């Protein structure tokens, strides 16, 4: 599972407004500054009453148009699922916002003369007053206002944090391990890699190697078939390795009628993979004896596997010939062993590997068996086992833009009413 997080806007039109409107207000503000400088040397005259009323009316209409445009656009973008430009209400909102620019421009142009606020008989007292230096603070108020407007419109664009969880294409193969649990697997001619003098039975060595093999898998589907005179499925193909590991630990010899039915075991393993769509299908056959109980010939079973596209890798466990075999406990409770001859048929296993396009191995100890397992994996081509799924969760974060907008607006009002208050 891969998890990615990205920031995005649910409404691109709202984002466009967040960029366009602050630019429009900036242009208007610069235009006002330019007209103010142009009128600085003009003689102040009293404006006609009609001009003042017209200017006030234009500003009121501009504010109403701004509020109406923002509300209608916000409602379409947030409260409906309509495509923005296909909605008449959204187009109306954009028209109202466009009218704001025109109305504000007309209001600025109409303000051509200053109306006198204080009437004085002489300017001599004012000339004696030393002028102040507001410095860069005079730019802070309009900048805070623009910042508040931009953040509000940014919230209209509905910023979101999108968290996407996606399944990864995993590569693996289907592997069914076929384990011989006949009594001949009790022979103790195996030894752990680190303790060569310690005696270990073939079944214990095979289970230890299979257990280690399971722990190393991440994407392969594994199954387990056990056999003696007959074959049984202990675990179907699964990705739940913990269950498979527990099943493996419970495997014992002598539970099934004694014998070696290699053909039956291969057929049962084939049936476990008939419905599989995986390209790479493998049977790993671990046995130490000669086939003597199969109802179907091991060669015929190998031919069936070849037709099904399943490769069989036989591993002959043990040395064969005279090997130590437990015969019971002595007087002092120690296990007693005696030499017993166990027949093997490596030629049969080689024939199975040849027909089923596998490879024959012979493991005489645990280290060699582990190496054989790894060599089998190296030869196999991997394929995809699962299709990707994708789930995206969106978290709205527009409030993160509204809160700074409110703070900027409050700070702008406080500065305008206190330190940066204008007079007259």
- Kindly report the CATH topology of the largest domain: Rossmann fold
Poorly predicted regions: 41-45
The CATH C-level name of the largest domain is Alpha Beta
N-to-C series of helices and strands: EHHHHHEEEHEEHHEHEEEHEHEEH
Into which percentage range does the β-strand content fall? 15-25%
Q: Biggest sheet: strands side by side, in what order?
A: 6-5-4-7-8-11
- CATH architect. name of the largest domain: 3-Layer(aba) Sandwich
Distance between the termini: 66 Å
Mean pLDDT: 76
DSSP helix count?
12
Helix percent band: 40-55%
The CATH superfamily of the largest domain turns out to be: von Willebrand factor, type A domain
Coarse shape = rod-shaped
Biggest sheet: strands, sense, closure? 6 strands, mixed
Count of spatially separate domains: 2
Write a short abstract of this structure:
The protein has 424 residues and is α/β, with parallel strands linked by helices. The chain is built from 12 helices and 13 strands. The protein has helices at 12-38, 49-79, 88-110, 124-127, 140-156, 202-216, 241-249, 262-272, 298-307, 346-355, 366-379, 399-417, and strands at residues 2-9, 159-166, 171-172, 174-180, 221-227, 231-238, 281-287, 310-317, 321-329, 335-342, 361-363, 383-384, 390-396.
């Amino acid at each position: 599972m891969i998890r990615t997080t990205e920031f995005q806007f649910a409404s691109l039109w709202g984002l466009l407004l967040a960029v366009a409107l602050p630019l429009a207000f900036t242009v208007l503000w610069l235009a006002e500054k330019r007209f103010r400088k142009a009128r600085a040397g003009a003689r102040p005259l009293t404006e006609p009453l009609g001009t003042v009323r017209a200017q006030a009316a234009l500003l009121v209409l501009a504010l109403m148009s701004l509020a109406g445009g923002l509300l209608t656009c916000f409602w379409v973008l947030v409260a409906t699922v309509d495509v923005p430009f296909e909605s008449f209400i959204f187009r109306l909102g954009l028209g109202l916002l466009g009218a704001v620019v025109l109305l504000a421009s007309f209001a600025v142009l109409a303000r051509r003369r200053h109306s006198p606020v204080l009437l004085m008989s002489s300017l001599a007292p004012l000339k004696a007053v030393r002028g102040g230096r507001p410095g860069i603070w005079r730019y802070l108020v309009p900048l805070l206002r623009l910042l508040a407007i931009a953040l509000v419109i940014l919230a209209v664009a509905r910023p979101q944090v999108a968290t996407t969880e996606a399944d990864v294409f995993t590569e693996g193969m289907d592997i069914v391990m076929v384990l011989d649990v006949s009594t001949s697997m009790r022979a103790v001619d195996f030894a752990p890699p680190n303790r060569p003098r310690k005696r270990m039975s073939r079944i214990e060595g095979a289970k230890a190697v299979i257990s280690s093999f399971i722990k190393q898998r991440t994407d392969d589907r594994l199954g387990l078939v056990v056999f003696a005179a007959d074959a049984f499925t202990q675990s179907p193909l699964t990705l739940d390795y913990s269950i498979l590991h527990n099943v493996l630990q419970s495997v014992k010899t002598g539970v099934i009628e004694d014998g070696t039915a290699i053909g039956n075991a291969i057929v049962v393993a084939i049936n476990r993979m008939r419905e599989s769509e995986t390209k790479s299908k493998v049977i790993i056959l671990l046995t130490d004896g000669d086939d003597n109980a199969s109802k179907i010939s091991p060669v015929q079973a190998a031919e069936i596997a070849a037709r099904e596209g399943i490769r069989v890798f036989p591993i002959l466990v043990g040395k064969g010939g005279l090997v130590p075999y437990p015969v019971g406990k002595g007087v002092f409770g120690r296990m007693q062993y005696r030499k017993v001859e166990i027949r093997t048929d490596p030629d049969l296993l080689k024939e199975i590997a040849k027909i089923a396009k596998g490879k024959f191995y012979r493991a005489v100890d645990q280290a060699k068996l582990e190496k054989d397992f790894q060599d089998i994996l190296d030869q196999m081509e991997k394929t995809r086992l699962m299709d990707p799924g994708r789930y995206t969760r969106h978290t709205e974060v527009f409030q993160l833009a509204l809160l700074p907008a409110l703070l900027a607006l409050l700070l702008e009002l406080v500065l305008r009413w206190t330190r940066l208050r204008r007079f007259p």
